[in-house]
Every structure is written in structure tokens, then in C-alpha cells.
Specification:
Length: 336
């Protein structure tokens, strides 16, 4: 077995330590001309992403390297109504040690100190996660602002952000008011997100667009651009609670908005697909998209996260097969 599996795959990029993009986006005044005239061809977006997944294929050591990299970018998440302190502690233990010891040894990556990119929980679960992750460099992310619908008054949304930050969250995943997008009220959307960014203080703001509710890809592009103009550090596809969550065509539109914003301002914004992603294959496909559209820099947790939970179990199962030549039962790779 290779002593360092990552050395076999330069294409997978560096597996950077978990953390957000330090060169924060300061935002800018609302500029509708950057998005109102921007047309999106749905058929072209679907063809592009279909060809991407058909053309791209990695096997054996190369695939293992890409999957190890994906682990470092996962926001390991529990957002259930029956969450408990004990469940969060178990999840944090998995975030610290995402692979079984024999897999780590077989891959030759013991010196990597591999962890997931973050742990994401509800605001009331933040203190439990902070205590469980003490001594690590894994950030705690918290959803806020009336997740998942966002249908609560703005002052309460801002107070929820401040509560989560006060409890120790280093990243805040907010949800927007979809009505602002559907009505084309870009000023209201901008003002809402800018206020949320201010409430976050030093915590990084990840703006969930809930793209499955936005009806058109043009709306997805416009909402992405408004979020970045308002100061978002990341834009995120979904809450995971919509009928349609992260899809590659939507992701393509969002990452091209990232590219356009970067070209206009010089600032690099992160991207987080989330919802409905359960397989190692999905982890590969999303990384392929980032590499081809934005380059290797977006293959590290400072600029790319995968909002998932069960995906990690499938990645671990695939890596176990790479090391041992056998597929273990899924129960052998429990999430926590």
C-alpha cells in the first residue's frame, strides 16, 4: 500500500485543514446590473453537468485520494427534531476520527490528522458540539434564522444568530426569505442578508438559497449574486428539507456566479451543496464540478463544503473496500 495515498493524485488538490476562507468577502452596494440581464440556459446547464459526470472517472488509488479529500470538506450534520446532546457528542467523535483505524493505516495517512470540515447542528446543540470538539480545530456550524423555512421576523432571526455565535458557533448557515426572490425584491433580500452578516460578527456566513423553491435558474443566479454582494462568505444550495435539493445544474449556475463575482471584485466565495447527497459517487461528482469550473483551490474546506451525513458512511465503505478488497456491511461504518 502506498505510504501516502494523496501523493497519487495531484488532481484531488491539497487536503487543507478545516477552516473558512480567511480573506473574507466585505460585500458591496447592491448592483442589480450584475445579474438582472444575466440569462441562464437550463438545457445547456443540464448538458454540461451530464457530460461532466460521463467524461470524468477515477479509479483505485486516484479515487481513494479524491474520497479522502471529500471527507475533509464534509460538514457533518445532524438536524433532526430528536437531536440530543449524546447524539451530537457521537457525531463530533466521528468528525474527529472519520475513518476506522485500519483504513487510516492501510491508506498510509496517519500523519494527516484527517477530520471533517465542520460539524453542523441546531443552535441549542452548539454548546454540546463546542465541548465535544474542544482541542480540535474543527469549527462548529449552526443553522439559524428560522431554519428551514426562514419564516420568522427579522429581529428574531438576528437574535438567533447572536445566540448561536454567543454559544461558540464559528459558522452560521442562514436561510433567506424565498418570497423576496420570487417577487424580485432584491433590495429586501440584500438588506436581510447584510443584517445577518453584521449579526454574525467574526463568524462566517453561509447563505442557504433553498434553490428548490426558487423556480428558475435565473432566480438562482440572481439570488447567488445578491447574497455575495451582501457579504456572504459561502453560498449554499439547500436546507435539505425542500422537495428538490442539491443538483449539479443548480450547482453549475451557482459556481459560475461565484466566478463572475470573483472576476468583478477579486474576492473568492465558498460553495456548499447540501441535501440529498448520500453516496461516494456524489462526493466525486461535486468535486469534479469544482475542479473543472473553478480550479484546485476550491477543493479545500476553506472554499468548498459538502453538507451531508450519510455520505461519510458510504465514503468509508468504499475506502474500506480499497484497503481490504472486500465490501463491509453498512452497519460496520455507522455515522456515529
Amino acid at each position: 500500500m502506498t505510504a501516502d495515498i494523496l501523493s497519487s493524485s495531484a488532481t484531488a488538490g491539497p487536503t487543507a485543514r478545516a477552516g473558512a476562507n480567511d480573506n473574507r468577502n466585505p460585500g458591496m452596494p447592491l448592483r442589480p446590473e450584475m445579474f438582472l440581464a444575466h440569462a441562464v440556459n437550463r438545457n445547456a446547464a443540464e448538458r454540461r453537468t451530464a457530460s461532466l459526470t460521463a467524461r470524468r472517472s477515477v479509479k483505485k488509488a486516484w479515487q481513494a485520494a479524491w474520497l479522502v479529500n471529500a471527507i475533509s470538506c464534509i460538514d457533518l450534520t445532524t438536524l433532526s427534531g430528536d437531536d440530543t446532546a449524546e447524539r451530537v457528542r457521537r457525531l463530533c467523535a466521528k468528525a474527529r476520527h472519520p475513518l476506522a483505524p485500519h483504513i487510516v493505516e492501510g491508506l498510509g495517512i496517519a500523519d494527516m490528522d484527517l477530520t471533517t470540515g465542520a460539524v453542523c447542528v441546531y443552535p441549542t446543540m452548539v454548546p454540546h458540539a463546542v465541548r465535544a470538539l474542544k482541542g480540535s480545530r474543527i469549527p462548529v456550524a449552526s443553522v439559524a434564522t428560522g431554519f428551514p423555512t426562514g419564516l420568522m421576523p427579522l429581529p428574531l432571526k438576528l437574535e438567533e444568530i447572536r445566540y448561536a455565535v454567543g454559544e461558540g458557533a464559528g459558522e452560521i448557515d442562514i436561510v433567506i426569505t424565498r418570497e423576496h426572490v420570487l417577487n424580485g425584491n432584491w433590495t429586501a433580500l440584500y438588506d436581510e442578508i447584510a443584517a445577518m452578516r453584521e449579526a454574525c460578527g467574526a463568524a462566517h456566513l453561509k447563505t442557504i438559497l433553498a434553490t428548490g423553491d426558487l423556480k428558475t435558474l435565473r432566480n438562482v443566479y440572481s439570488a447567488s449574486m445578491v447574497a455575495m454582494q451582501a457579504g456572504a462568505d459561502f453560498i449554499k444550495t439547500s436546507t435539505g428539507k425542500e422537495g428538490v435539493n442539491a443538483t449539479l445544474p443548480v450547482g453549475l449556475v451557482m459556481v459560475r456566479a461565484l466566478r463572475d463575482y470573483g472576476d468583478a471584485t477579486g474576492y473568492r466565495i465558498g460553495f456548499k451543496p447540501a441535501g440529498g447527497m448520500r453516496t461516494a459517487k456524489a462526493a466525486l461528482n461535486w468535486q469534479f464540478l469544482m475542479k473543472e469550473e473553478l480550479g484546485n483551490d476550491w477543493l479545500s474546506p476553506g472554499l468548498f463544503r459538502l453538507g451531508a451525513s450519510s455520505m461519510l458512511a458510504d465514503i468509508e465503505r468504499q475506502l474500506d473496500h480499497f484497503v481490504t478488497g472486500r465490501y463491509a456491511a453498512s452497519s460496520r461504518h455507522a455515522l456515529a
